[in-house]
Each structure stands twice: as C-alpha cells, then as structure tokens.
Design brief:
It is a multi-pass membrane protein. This is Mn2+/Fe2+ NRAMP family transporter. Pfam families: Nramp (PF01566). GO terms for molecular function: cadmium ion transmembrane transporter activity; manganese ion transmembrane transporter activity. The chain is mostly helical and about 425 residues long. About 80% of the residues lie in helices and about 0% in strands. It is built from 18 helices and no strands. Helix 1 crosses helix 7 and helix 3 runs antiparallel to helix 11. It is globular, with a radius of gyration of 21 Å. The N and C termini lie far apart (about 45 Å).
Length: about 425
C-alpha cells in the first residue's frame, strides 16, 4: 500500500542487555497508536462539541451524566467494530464499502466529504473565535492564521508524525485546562453520580447529537485511517488496534465529563449562561476574565485539531479513487483547508448548512457501521479473522437504535433544521 511507514514491521528484541536497534521504531509505533487515538478524540472535540455539551447540560442539569454514559457506551461499540475491521483488512472505509457492494464506497465517500467540508467551515470559524477570545484578534484574521498553522503541518514530508504530535499536545492542554475549570466551579458531584444512574430526563436528542458528534461522519474513520497510513494493520496488531479505539473514546469522555461538571457547577449556583456564546460564559462566570482567555485556548485547540482531523480524514476517503490523489494527497488536504477557510472568510459560516449536516451526521453512523458489520463477516475482506459475536450483536443494536433515534429526532426537529 502506498505511502505507508515501516512502523508495521517493528518488534522488540526482548534482550534487555543489548541495545535494541529497533527501539526507535517501537516508540514510533506506540506514538502512531496514541496519535490515532488522539486524532479520533480531538476530531470530535471541536466548537460544536463545546457548545452542544454546554447547551444540553444547561437543559438537563445533572441528568446529562446519564446522556454522557449512554453515548460513551455506544461510541465504544461503534469504534471497536470500525477500527477492528479497518485494521485487520488494511483497507480504508470507502474500499471496504466497495467490496461489500460495488459503488457503495463512492456514496459513503461523497457523504463524508460533503459533511467534512461543511463542518470544517465551522471548525475554521471556531479557531478564529478562539484566537479572538485568547488574544483579541479579529475572528476572520484569526481563522486565516489558524488555517495557515494547519497547512504547515501537511507541508512536512512526514506530515502524519507531525500531526500525531500536534493533536497529542493540544489534547493534553485541553484536558488539563478543562479539569482545572471543572474543579474551580465545585460542581455537585454526588448529584451528578445519582442522576447518571437514575436520570430525571433521558435526553434522547442529546444522546443522538453526542453520538453523532463523537463517532458520526468522518470522525468514525479518523483513527482507523491513521493506523493504515502508519502501517499498523493485520491480526498481529489487533490488541493495540482495539486499545487505541477504546483510548480515543476515553479521551473524549474525560473532556466531555470535565466540561459537563464545569457547566453544572456554574448553573447549580443559579448563574445564567449567555446563550449567544454559552461555552464562553461558563468560563467567564467560573473565573472571570482569565476564564475567558482559558476558553480561547481550549476553543482554539479544539478547533485547530478538528480542522486537521476533518481535512485529513475527508481526503483519505478519495485517496484510493485515483493515483494522482494518492500521490499528492497532502496537497489535496491543504486545498481542502484553503476552501474551508475561503468560504468562512468571504461568505461567513453557513449556519443552516452546518445545522443540517450536523443532524444528518448521526444518520451516516448507521450506514457506515452497518457496512463494517457486513464486512466483518466477509472472508474476502477480513481473511481468517473471526469477528467477536458480542461486537456484531451490540454493533447491530447501535445501528438500529441510532437509525431510529436519528430519524425520530430529525422528524421532530424538521422545522428548526430547514
């Protein structure tokens, strides 16, 4: 497979008394696995993530804990199925889909790319708002500067490794700052634990939105496609692949729980959020002007990693369609970022498009996960690998539940979307 690192060939010598000439490759493999987990996690932690979690927590209060718990379970099931099939087959999502049914990969790729482009316009805008909150920079200029930063990553020869490091650092910064703010607001943790088990409101719309935003659309494949580019494929790497999938969801979960507790700590004191910018108001109400600056850092880190993740994963869905795209895929990624930034800078953020695509994102998950479940039992795709029955059954459950809930919420919110 083209443009694959040598990381899939690494192994430890097992001799602690002699230098390990492959030690650097072992570290590279571990870095790529961690990078894939953080790429998936940070791709889902964007401007929409911050706003959605804040708004739903403000509505559901402590019962938001139940929503988060359910969504994390569904997320883990979805990602384990997708990562294992992609990892074992060594094929990207569109190629798996085409082997399941000729032409299906093209349909999936079109949905992913259109959704990824629409979301990336919002991600670029979020980066601009982050720099505005952090440094007072005009949002348009902030978006352009941020896009330039993202483009630089893909100018490097080993862009994948640079991307791994960027999302890793940004991810840790976001988690540290979010945990700090959560502790500062002194949330009612006891009540949150109780309502996580016994909610007053099931929050079905919130569950659909959170699952769609965490493992829907392009995000479903972000980590798995990174593993392919790093050469970490095959049954011999199955344990690491599964651990990477779970790690990505846990990283997302930590961030979401910390934000949930921070918001709960603020609203439980009777303070009113500014719904024109709810996430920012949480930080301001928690620790004043410094909180607004911290929000800027988190917003920028969340947005820039989502810009990178959306561009990288969206283009990965068309790489195998033509040799030119495969050879110059980094330039196609840069072009993707440039188009997203141009639309934001000249037209502005197309709110209605973003809302519609955001809602439809949850519908892509049943389709993509359903394809992976069929592929998991086709020997022509996964060879001798035996997919665990528990993952097939629970994966099918997620497909059915998300399809029903997505259609239900779309119908009930149709007037607000269109």
């Amino acid at each position: 497979m083209g443009n694959v690192d040598v990381e899939n060939k690494v192994e430890e010598t097992g001799n602690n008394n002699k230098p390990n000439p492959k030690g650097r490759k072992v570290v590279s493999k571990r870095s790529a696995l961690l990078g894939a987990a953080f790429l998936m996690a940070t791709s889902s932690i964007g401007p929409g993530f911050l706003t959605q979690t804040t708004v739903f927590t403000n509505q559901l209060l402590a019962s938001m804990g139940f929503v988060i718990a359910v969504s994390l379970i569904l997320d883990v099931i979805a990602q384990l199925n997708v990562w294992r099939v992609i990892g074992v087959s060594g094929l990207r999502g569109q190629d798996v889909a085409n082997k399941v049914l000729p032409g299906l990969g093209v349909v999936l790729a079109v949905l992913i790319v259109i959704g990824g482009l629409a979301f990336n316009i919002g991600n670029v805008g979020g980066a601009g708002l982050g720099l505005n909150a952090m440094l007072g920079v005009d949002p348009i200029y902030g978006a352009i500067v941020s896009a330039g930063f993202a483009i630089i990553i893909f100018l490097f020869k080993e862009a994948g490794k640079v991307m791994d490091r960027v999302v890793l650092v940004a991810g840790f910064v976001m988690i540290f700052l979010m945990l700090y703010v959560a502790i500062t607001t002194a949330p009612p943790v006891g009540e949150a634990i109780v309502r996580t088990v016994w909610p007053e409101d099931l929050g079905l719309l919130a569950i659909v939105t959170l699952v769609g935003g965490t493992v829907g659309g392009y995000i479903t494949f972000a980590g798995g496609h990174r593993l392919i580019d790093a050469g970490i494929t095959g049954q011999e790497n199955l344990k690491q692949i599964s651990n990477g999938a779970v790690s990505g969801i846990l990283i997302t979960g930590i961030m979401r729980i910390a934000l949930f507790l921070a918001v709960l700590g603020v609203v439980s004191k009777g303070l009113q959020l500014d719904m024109s910018n709810p996430a920012a108001s949480v930080f301001q109400l928690a620790i004043g002007e410094a909180g607004f600056r911290i929000f800027g850092v988190i917003m920028w880190a969340a947005a820039i990693t989502s810009v990178v993740g959306a561009a990288y994963t969206s283009v990965s869905f068309i790489r195998s369609f033509h040799p030119v795209i495969e050879k110059y895929h980094n330039w196609f990624i840069i072009g993707f970022i440039v188009v997203s930034t141009t639309v934001f800078a000249t037209i502005g953020q197309p709110v209605k498009i973003l809302v519609v695509v955001g809602a439809l994102n949850a519908l892509i998950l049943p389709l993509s996960l359903g394809i992976m479940l069929v592929a998991a039992h086709k020997q022509s795709i996964i060879g001798t690998y035996k997919h665990p029955k528990v993952l097939t059954i629970t994966g099918a459950f997620v497909v059915v539940i998300m399809a029903i809930l997505s259609v239900y919420t779309l119908i009930n919110n149709f007037s607000t979307l269109f």
